[in-house]
Amino acid sequence: MTLHGLYTAIITPFLPDGSLDVDGFRTLVDLQLDGGVDGLVVAGSTGEAATMTLDEKRRLWEVAVEQVDGRIPIIAGSGSNDTRATAEASRVAEQAGVRGLLVVTPYYNKPTRSGLIAHHTAVAEATSLPQILYNVPGRSALNMSAETQLAIAEAVPTVIATKEASADLGQMSEILRHAPAGFSLLAGDDNLALPIIALGGVGVIAVISNYATRTYGTMIHAALRGDVAEARTLHHQLGPWYAANFFESNPIPVKYLLHRRIGIHLQYRLPLTPPAAETIARLDALIPVMPV
Q: Domain range holding 35?
């Protein structure tokens, strides 16, 4: 699988009783297709995967694959802090028909480099699908250094890319400078996609594109073709929205914005809760100029 462009980390809508809103999910997938995304990540952290069962993830992966009908790749968020569970989820994702896996750094355990290599090796032994590392120290409590990520890429041939959400451009430069052939870097922070592409990144796995699909996608593709002026203009226009997505923990704000835009249920799974009144007021003040 060749990675290039905008991949949306899509939210998971729930019904008022807390169950999956499959019809709402189909609507969201169609909106992404209409917006011209290059792929979707289903059941990642933005999709509240930590509170979903494997059967629920399987259902979402199957629905997404069916809905896109081969037009764009579906990437499954199959990672966890349990290697056996990650390998099993990855097998299930392959059976569901996805094209790749996003495998988060095992959180809480804080494994060593050898443990991380063994973790991704176990996934490679369970499935032939390509893996994307997901380095997100703000959630996992462990930063995978450039050296560690490159060691994993060298040791595990099915590891083809990293989603880098460390916000450390120096670290990303090191990865890009020494990356083996066929290993790519995707931005993991929406507001850093432009400088990361300038360094040699191939795109982004984004939150903002859940609702600003066309605007953000235009910015990403302008950057990728070297149109810095257009990309910079759109990047600055989107500045307030980069911030808005993190008024509270992701995906609390983005889910509220989609509730307001298309009427999905304002339903989260505990321990996430609806946004506080002051957050709603801040988001509502932005909605009249919400990008598409």
A: 5-242
- Distance CA(87)–CA(89), nearest Å, equals 6
Q: Which is the catalytic residue, given 163, 211, 242, 255?
A: 163
Number of domains, the chain: 1
Contact 224, 203 (CB under 8 A): yes
CATH of the domain at 25: 3.20.20.70
Strand, helix or coil for residue 127: coil
Taking CA atoms, 2 is separated from 28, 40, 185, in Å, by 24, 14, 12
Active site residue 163: yes
Phi then psi for residue 100, to 5 deg, are: -165, 175
Task: Please check whether residue 272 lies inside any domain of the structure.
Answer: no
Is 225 part of a structural domain of the chain? yes
Q: Considering the candidates 7, 57, 107, 134, report the single residue annotated as catalytic.
A: 134
Structure pTM?
0.97
Verify whether residue 134 is a known catalytic residue.
yes
Containing 184, the helix (H) or strand (E) segment is: strand 184-187
3-state secondary structure (DSSP) of residue 225: coil
- Encode pLDDT of 191-230 as tens digits: 999 999 999 999 999 999 999 999 999 999 999 999 999 9
